[in-house]
Structures are given as C-alpha cells and as structure tokens.
User: Fold these one by one.
Assistant:
Number 1:
Amino acid sequence: MKQEKGMTLIVKRITKVTVSLIFLFGVYIVLHGHLTPGGGFAGGVIIALSFIHLVLAFGKEAALKRITDTVISVSESVGGLLFWGIALLGLVFAGTYFLNFLPKGEPFTLFSSGTIVLCNIAIFLKVGAGLFAIFLALALFRITDDKQEGRNGL
Amino acid sequence: MIIVLMIAGAIVAMELEDLLSSIIALGAVGIGLTLEFLLLRAPDLAITQLVVEILSLIILIRATVGAKVPQEKIKARVGYFAFAVLFVVVFLVFSYRALGALPEFGAPIMKIGAQYIRDALTRTGAANIVSAVILDFRAYDTLGEATVLFTSVIGVLAILRKAGRKQ
C-alpha cells in the first residue's frame, strides 16, 4: 500500500460520507436564512468548514482539485459585488439604497421576502470563499514554506 | 454556572504553558458562550458562534501544533499589579452604576425594536426577524461588515503572500 497524503484510511472513509452532508447542511442554512435561524454568514462558514474538512483529511491537492483558487477569488469578488449590486438596484428601481424592491411573496415559504434571499446567497459566497482562503493561507503557510512550493498568492 | 466555567476556562487558557491545552481551554469558553446564547433564546447567534468557534479552533490548532513558540516569563511587578487592581476596581464601580440605570431584563421599552417586531413580517415577508433586520432594515450595516471581512481577507493574503517577497 503506497503512502498517500492526508490522514489514515478511517478518516478518509468517514470524510467521504460526511463532507457532502456538511455541504448540504450549509446550503440549507443559507437558503432558509429568512425562515429559520442561520443565514448567509453561518452557512458560508459551514461550507468553508466542509472544504477545510477535505483539506485536513486528503491534503491540499485533493481539495484544490475540486475548488481551485481562481474559483475562490472569483466567488469572493462576485459575492461582494452581488451584495452591493442589490443595494444599487434598490436605488435604481425604488429610489432608496437597499430597498426591498422584489415582491414579498407568501410568508413562511421558500420563495418569499424579496431581496433577503439574494443577500443571503451573496454573503454566503463572500464569507465561505473568504474564510476558506484565510484557512489555506494561514494553516498551510508553514508547510508550503518548508517545501518551497505552493501557489503564488495563496 | 456556565459563566463561572467560562471564566475558569479563560484563566486556564492564559496560565497554561502548553499552547494546545490553551487552545482547548479557549474552545471550552466558546462552547460556554454558545450555550449562553441558546439559553438567552438567540439561536442565530448560537449557530454563528458555534461554527466560527470551530473554524478558529481548527486554524489555531493547525497553525500552532508542532510550532516552537518561544515562551517568555513575564515577571510580575508590584506597580503593574497595583495598577491592574486599581483598574478593576474603577471598572467595577462604573459598570455597577451604569448597569443600575438599565431597564429590567426583558422589559420592552425599545420603541425602534418594537416597531421592527411588529412590521417585520408584513413589510419584508421574512419569517426570521433577525434576517429581516440585518438584511433589510439595517442592510447598510451588513454591507459595512462585509467590507470589513473583505479587507481582512485581503490583509491576510497580502501578509502571507509568496510573490514579490524579500527574503
């Protein structure tokens, strides 16, 4: 059996089962942020945690195969711009910054509350990508420094 | 009870020599804070506190395990100690007077908050009032918060960058 990167076989098997569940739970927290406790920030952190789980169990390469650093930086920027764009759209359509201009819908259903769902998704993109990038930079900094490899900028 | 546990955890985290033990004691403080939020019926805050605590613990453990951090013995001086005691006494006196002026716990005198609670469902359609406040009534604050996070990410990546670094 060849030596692989990451932790032992037990951790890897368990990780394969749990990572998708954690990811799904994060998406649930984000999309139901206007109905149940939670929201974009908590859901974004949970999704970042699922990728951190991958990094810890399988090593950096396996996780960066699934989500590259380009995707991370792009989604960070897109999240910020989307949130700001929603604010500007409120200014354009209704004349007030951050006005909730979309139809409110039926309360207690998934498609309700106008722009709040979109704001949650924007914050989720931003927080998830940002915290995962911070984790990569902080926690893997020493390792990449020792090996004299690693990506520029991350 | 939980507060006593948290204070004990914080003191232990400061006094321990071993970094890993300190981090675990810090985690106990965070879990205590999560339980506090749950008991005060703030599930939004509890979820956020729990996941951020897990994330910061992972980062701290990953960054400190195996790292040799030089330990410095700080000699306690009498002057510093007297100053600390004086500060604590002044702080306690002022906080006692300030907290005495606050209304009773849970007494609804907040006019703005009462309006949010009354109008949140009809004006935003969101069943979760916390979401309605932070993303609709007070979304401008949330934009500032997002800016803070963006700036901190940029700062971390700029400090830890490899390209263009002078060695």
Number 2:
Amino acid sequence: MAQVPNPLPPHRELRTAIYVYAALIVLGVVLVIVLTPWIATWEPVASARASDNFLTLIVFSAVAVPVFMFVMVFGFSNLYFFRHPRQSEPPRDGPYMVAGLGPQLAWIGLTAAHALVLFVWGLIFLARADAAPAPGANQLNVDVTGEQWQFNFTYPQYNNAQSEILELPVNRPVYFTITSLDVVHSFSVDALGFKEDAVPGVFTHIRVTPSKIGSYSLRCYELCGLYHTYMEGPVRVVSAADFDTWVRGLKVHGYPWGINGAGAPVGAPTPPGGTGGPSGSVGPEGPQALILSHSPPANVPRSAFT
Amino acid sequence: MNNSLGKWVFTVVLVLLGVAWVGGIVVLLHAMGTTSPAAQASSRRPAISPTQPPNLPTKHVYMTLQTFPSTPTDAWAVEHHYSFVSPGVAPLNGHEDWVRYGPNTNLVLPAHALVTMTIENYDGQTPILNEFYSKVQGTVGGIETVDGKPVTGADPSIVSHTFTIHSIPNANQPWLYVSVPVVGEPDDVEEAGADNGFPPKPIVMQFSFVTGGPGKYIWQCFDPCGWGFNGFGGPMQTRGFMSGTVTVQG
Amino acid sequence: MSTTHEVPASHEPRDGRVSGQPSLWQKLVPSHLTGIIGAAIGYFVFTAIVRATTPEDALAQPDILLLWGFIGLLIGWLIGLGALNYPVRWILGMPEPKHEEPYRGEGYYRQIWRYFRWNLDHKIIGIQYLALTLIMLALGGTGAMLIRLNLLVPGTRFFPPNTYETIVTMHGMLMIATMFSIIVGPFGNYFVPIMIGARDMAFPRLNALSWHLLAVGVFIFLLIPFVGGLQTGWTFYSPLADQTEPGAIAFAVGVILMLVSSSIGLVNMLATIITMRAPGMRWTRLPLFLWGIIGTAILTATSAPSWFSGLIQVLLDRAYHTTFFLNIVPGSDTFVSSAATGGGNAYLYEVTFWFFAHPEVYILAIPGWAALMEVTTVFSRKPAFTYKLAILGILGVTLNSFLVWGHHLFVSGWAPALRGYYMFTTELISIPTGFIFITILGTLWRGRLWMKLPLAWVFAFLWTFTIGGITGIFLSDVPLDIQMHGTYFVAGHFHYVILGSMLWGFFALCYYWFPKITGRFLDERLGWVHFWGTNITFNLVFATFFLMGWQGLPRRVADFAPLFDIPNTFASIFAFLLGAVMVVFFANVIWSWRYGEKASANPWNARTLEWQVPSPVPPENFAALPTVKEGPYEYGTPAAPPPPAPGAKPVPTPGS
C-alpha cells in the first residue's frame, strides 16, 4: 500500500517555479525596502527607540518576503500547472507522492533558522531599548499616575511639581515610573516608540530618550472603561532651557497645594493679579491661607511615590 | 429554471432582511443610549455673580450645576423650583439612589468666552485618592470661591467631587483643561437635612474659565464617590451621573 | 462506494426501538419549550429566595440578584429539559427515563421537532450545533456591522461610548465563542463517530449536555445590554470588570457556561476517538481532521479551567467583595498600597486569563488547519504529503501554545526578565505551524486539482493565513510589540489569523460535508459569489486595519483622529459589503437544505469512512461496524479503484 516507490520523473514545473520564486524574492525585498517607509509613516519618529522599531519593521518585512513568496509561488502556481480542466467531473487520482526524509528535514531546518534569526535580532534590540543611561547622564525621573480617564505627571526631582501635560527636555534620558489608582491603563507615546501598562498597586518602568523637539500626543492603549476613547493628552519635547523654565513655573508642590497660578492654564490667559472671585483680589491673608481645610495637615512635600 | 430564479430572489430578500435587522438594532440601541438635551450656558447672571475681571473676553456667560447624593424627589424639586433632567441611560434601573450631577450633564458653551460656573453641592465628603485633583487648575486667577471665600485648593479629605474638563478627541481643537474640587458638606450638616436626604443649604463653588475655539470635550469627577470596588463603580462608570460632555460652539 | 474498507450495506436500526407516531404530549414534554418554562421559573424562584434572605444594602447593586437568578435559570432549564431525569433515576435505582430513548428509533427519526428537545443522537446534536453556531455567527456579525457603523464617520454619531464598548465586548466574545465551536461543534459531533466507524459518542448524555449548556450560555450572554452593558472588552481585565456595569455578571456566567460546554464536548470526542475506533483504525490511519480534534480537546481540557476559575473569582469579587484581584479593600475610604490590604493582584487575573486565552487561539486555529488538510487531499487527489509531520505539527502547536502566553504581557510590566523567553517560544511556534503548510503545499503540488469550492477555500487560507502569520512575527518581537500593542495592527493580525484558519476551514467543510449531512449540494453559483465577495471585501477591510495600526490608531475606541477619517470610512463600507456577502452564504445554506441539487453517497470520490455510508447518514450510522484496511488518503496507489470513466457514473453537479 504505502510502499509504492515514487514513480515520478523529474519535472520542469519545479524548475520554473524555482526561477519565479527567486525573481519574486528579489522583487519583493526591493519593494519592501522602498515602500515600507512610505506606507508605514507613524507619527514623527522622535527617539532612538522609535527609529529602532522602524528599522525592525523594515528588516522583518524583508525577511518575511521569502516565506510569503514561497507560499504564494508553490501554492498558487498549482492552479496554473496542475488544474483539472473540467469542473463537472472528478479527475483521476494524482501521483502517489509523499515526502522523503530529506525534504522534511530541510523544511524544519529552514524554518528553525528563520525563527532563530528573528529571535537574535529581537534580543539585541530589546537590550538596546532597555539599556540604562551612562553614569552621570543626568536622568530625568517622571512619575506617571493613571486614573480614569486621564494621566497626570509628577517631577520628583523638581520638588514634586505636577502637571496634566507631559513636557520633556530633548536628548535627556527619561525614566518613567508608572502606576494606576484604579484599573489597568497603558501609557504610550507613539512618537517616542514605547508603551507600558499602568497597573494598580504596582510600579512599572520604562526608559526613553526624546531626540527631536516637537509636539506629540500620549494616550491610553488599554481599554479602561467608559471614556477610554478620550484618555489622551499632549506631549511637548522642548529644549533643556525651556523645560527648566516650564517645570519651575509649576508652583504645585505635592500637598498642600501651592499658591495662586497653579498649573498655568494652557490656552487660557492668566490675568496679572489673579482676580476673579466675588471678593475681588486674592486678599491680604497671603496665598497659603487659600487652602480650604478643616484640619490643616503637616506641611510636608509628598510624592505619590515612595 | 424556476428553482434557479428562486434562489436569487431568496438571497436578495434575506440580504434585505439582514439590513432591516441591523437597522432595527441600531434604532433600538440608539434609543437606549439617548441622553437628555444639552444645557445651554445663559447670559443671565445668577443671584450671586462675580465682577467682570479685566483683560478677559467681553462675552461672559453663566452656568449652574448641582450635585446630589441621590436623585431629588419630586417634592424637593417643586419646593426648590428645580427641573431635573434624567440622564435616561439605564434601561432597567433608574438608579435613583446614585450620586449625580444635575440638572443635565451635557453642557454647551460658546467659543472664545468667559464662562462663570456655579456648582451647588448637597453631597457629603468623600476623600479623594489623587490629590492632584484637589487643587484648582485652569481657572481665571487659579482660584475658585467656596461659599464666597477664594481658594486655590482644598484638603483632599473634605472634597466631595471634582469638576474636571479635559481631553482632546482629536488634534484639531485647542486643549481645554479646567479642574476644581467640589467641597462637601460636613457629616453633621449632611445628616441634619434628613427630610429629603439633602442639607437645607448647599455649599456653593464658583469659578471662571476661558474657552478657546470650537471643540468637543468631556468632563468628569475624579473623586471615587461611586459604588463597588473602592468607589469607582456605579455612577463613576455610567454615563450621565458623574461625567458628561462639553461642546464648545463657534 | 467501493473502497477497500468493509462497510456492510444494510442500515436497519437495531432491534427494540420504538416506532410509530408520538403523541403531542410526548413531543412537548419534555422539550425546549418546557426547558424555557423551567428557566423562567428557576430565575424567579432563585431571585425571590435571594431577595428574602439578603440584607437590603447588599441588594443595592443588582449583582447578587443577577448571579443567583442566572444560576436558577440554568437549573430550571436543565430540569425542564429532562436532562436531570437520568442521573436522578439512576441514583434512585429506577429504570432509564423513557423520553431519551424513543427518539433514536427509525420511526420518529425524520421529524423536525426532534431538534427541539434533549436528544442523544450525535448527528442531531451536530445539526443543533450547526444551527446554533450559525446564529451566533450572525449575531457576532451584527455586532461587527454596528461597530463599523459607529466608525463610519468621526464623532460617535450613532452610539455613545458606553454602548459602543458594550458592542465591542459582545462582538469579540460572541465571535470567539462561535469560532470555538463552529467546526468542532457541528462537524466534530456529526463526523467523529462516523469517521472512526462508531455508532455514537462515548458519552451521549454529556454530548447533549454540551449543546444545551452552550445554548443557555449564549442566551444569558445576550442579556448583557438589558442589564446595563459592560465596557471591558472580551479580555475582561479584572479591576475594570469589578467596577463596570452589571452586564459583567451576565458576561461571566454566560462565558463560564460556554467554557464548560466546550470542555465536556471536546473531552467526550477525545474519549470517543481513543476508545471507539473500528477494527483496523490504527492511530496512523486516523484522518487528519480527527488529529485536529485530538489537539483541540487536549488544549481545551487543560487551559479552559484557568479562565473558568478566573471568572468565578471575578464574580465573587463583584457580588461578595472578595479581593482575589483587588489590592484595595472594597468600600474602604482610604487608598492604601497593596502591602497593607486586599492582597489581590491585577497581574493574577491577566496571567489566569492569558494562560487560557493564548492556547484558545490555537483551539480556534487547529480544527481549521485539520479541516483544510482533509479537504486538500480529497480535491488534489493525492495522499497527504507529510502525514506524520502534520500530526507532529498539530501536537507540537498544542504543546508549544502553553509556553507562550506571556507575549500578551510584554507591555504590562509583568516579569520583564521573561520577555526574551516568551519571544523565543513565540517564534518557535512558527516551526510546527510550518508543518501544516508543507503538508498542504506538498499535497497540492503535482496533484490533479479539482477546483470545487472546498479547494478554493484552501487557497483563500494560503493567502489569508500567511499574511496573518507574518504579521504575528512582527508582534512576537518585543520592541516592535511595544510599539504596536493595542493598535489596529493587532486587530488586523488576529482577524487574518482567525478568519483565515477557522472560518475559511468552516466554509471549506460546509461545501464539503453539506451533501453528506443533508443529501444535497450547496448551490455552486451562490457559493462562488460568496467566495469571491468574501475574499475581496475581507482583504480590503483588514489590510486597512494594518495601515491604521501602523499609524497608531488604538483598538476599541469610539472616536478617532482626523488622520483616520478616510481609512475608517473605507473599511466600514467594505465591511458592510462583507456582511452582505455573509448573508448570501446563509441564504445558500437555508435554500439548499430544502431545494439543493441531490447528491450521491460519495460525490467527491473520497476514501474516508463517512463517505462510505448513504447520504444523509442513517440512524446508528453503520448496521454492523466496518473494518478499516488502509489509511485515509491512499489516492494514486495501485490499490485504489480505477477512476470512473467520464459519463459512466455521473456525479451530479449543480448547473450541469
């Protein structure tokens, strides 16, 4: 039964298919390298992390071309070479052809080698992405708190200044410490090429070094309930001097909250003198008196992260 | 022949039935999700109103919201000349015992205008988790008044809710961010007003902010004042109770 | 019908079966009608008991009421069906209940109402499964239409965000549940006993229970929008599931029932294959479809309990304020870090879930691959190119899929040191998957390709699943996954994978086995309209997903940035066309069941056992058990019968 020797003569279809396959690999790789940067234009690439990802995308696409073309050529060419001409009646049986050991081992070896190449590439780039900055690199720490449905940011090195807008200095390594107060969120800036979950009760970390001044956006990528759609916000990468000015202008130092003009409202002008209440100006008691409190707590600057 | 025509007719009829089926579900779900009509800002001044600060848009509008520990009863509403617009989002349950904003959670504001908002709070205190939201942010002068007293923040333990406008659904509209704490009634006052469940006199917050160009925003409460796991369930997760939309019209 | 298997020709039912007409009372009691009445009574009795015995403030949330109401509904449904009669009578030492036995006899066999009752015949259960999974497919597809409608134009014009997220959640879970059972339910139940030469399943009552649990599970699941909806997505991540709307209760109870149903159904099939093979049906003579069932059964039985327990813990967290996944004490007024309170952990849910939900992807894929390999050999008239390597591929994927769940947690911050390991195992799984491809490609090569619809779907699979697999390689790379995670790129990837393997496999099997089940062909013209329409619109829709994902459009959002206006409108329009084409398939099934072209017993000239019995298959399948003499795909061997001369033995084909 199964011991029928393979009676098949060598056939020219295989040779034709191999030529077509080789030609299509070359064509495909060229197309991938030319077209991928053109199609896959995500937000402006503003960090080494993001540009590495972009390179990986192109390389993986190119490496995938032989796989894709193999299935296309040796699958779909059958329709051209071996199609039974009439649909209305069944064909005779085809040749009894089962694989010998050689082709099977070759297939296993090739797919394993392919997977191994991708794995090694991935390990190298994972190590690059997670590498700690050189000693003395003046790393900026940013604490990120997710709460339905907004992120807010604390700069522990700047007296725990807080803001709902993320502003980062260019070319300075940033170390994010991320947590959530309610459900799982995912904190992401596409242009900087990273994403890290905010998990309640847990502090997660990610490193990135912004490399390009500009305005980007951040958002939550893990479905977090009713208004997940709108859990996004602006990111500004600015020069070191601009950042310094901005962060020191945040006169909000943990609890109790600072004074008048807190969190300079973006887009809304802050009038000099800061009037607005029915009693006119802020008053003679001084800014600290403005904290409404039934039991004044100790005036200890406190980060949400200890 | 007859057979072959029949199958095409049947197919077309079934496709049309499919369209009708999907259309019917759209109508049903749309009806279930319909919210109350929007609350327009008014140019009429409320009884207590701030003076017009300098250097701000001349267009000045006013809006008043209330927060309740539960839906006001009809008797209370008649007594206080209050018309409460039900959120109308819960198909099988009115959730009348849920904490909520009123009279309406869909707000419409004019663009490039000074908006003065008054929030009358009848609810008690719920400590806030994220102290970031217990400070006043994005208002004119960085302050709000609590029963006439200007403040830049409140002790997190006496806050009842927050009123926070945020978010950009897309990049084509200006960033608008306003957040104020809504201070709660002390426990003894809250319990004193037991006849309707509400204290006799609310705590009144007042603040002003400036709108930019047209856009759509959401506003919400960041204080875990709801049900279930740590107070983030129930009204905090359901549209029309502790959250809503802000439409800035040009 | 001549092969080397010995299949006795007589199909008389075994002796002692009831014949004649049943009375109306026998038809209706018990039946699904009494089951529905029992379910309603059970719901109200249980809710009344809970109302009477639970303190008022615990009932302020509907969770406890709903939970016990659904449990009552389930118990009432089973009692009303008569499902519990047998075990109760067995314990009491009474004879078997009468209502189970008569309906297996010849006399009642041809009547329509046998589908609407507790029935032990595997073929009737198979057809019940076919109807139910097609209804679930239609409902899931309805959800897809609603999603695309909301994304047709920006600005959430049709549904507010809460309704939108409810629809997304229901579409996701319904489609997963459908794909879970759309091959192993109808075709597994119908064909597993026939393909191994047995009369029925090893445990017919378990088989009936499996369908009836799925039916009530789907019903409870469909109550979600009426008890408040939920905004979690099908992943149902715990702290969110604990605080979202009460639809979460209906979700958890419904999904638990679906999981139990799949597990017992598949374990039953595994037991049947192990113990009830006909004489001569060695392991190496088992058709590849059955190897697919074996792999799926092992995966389901070992991974489903993980999420099952996770869902029960979520139910307890919600209804009774336990803290399995919460690190904050419910109802406490202060935020305290995890060291102090609660003791639960959100990661625990994620791991519990993904330990099931990654093997689950292969539970979806393996039966599809097996089905397509089965069809490939028949229509290219060649033996499987690498039969043993294909088995190794199925079992290799089965084993390997337990080692990779961590790749869903690359961005979660959980065990960062393990990310390299999970990247390795994930890329490793491309090797056994490659065995499936080499089997199909080698079988096609130099065959005599009979381009009927089943084979056409094999080519659709080659295109779709290759793209799905390659995009999966991108996502297995940790840094690239950190960029792509949670975007439409992922959504495009798994639609390509799941539809490409499971749904295309289902369609291939439908066109292949429909003549065996009904004795009639599916209409070929409608079939080709369905084939081309599906493939063109499908690729236009989901290729757009890749583009949008590259540019960072997040999944599961009700509104989007102006950048995505045009692609979303484009995808929506073609998704509507895809939906219309799917209706063509439904029309084809309904129409051809009644009016399709009549088929002979073995129209495809196939050599597996199910084609050696008449169409439709008679009760008891085989009068006497067959003896198997050779492997399933011995095409082109000297032992194979000569091909039918053209015209000598006409094979009916539609349109000719």
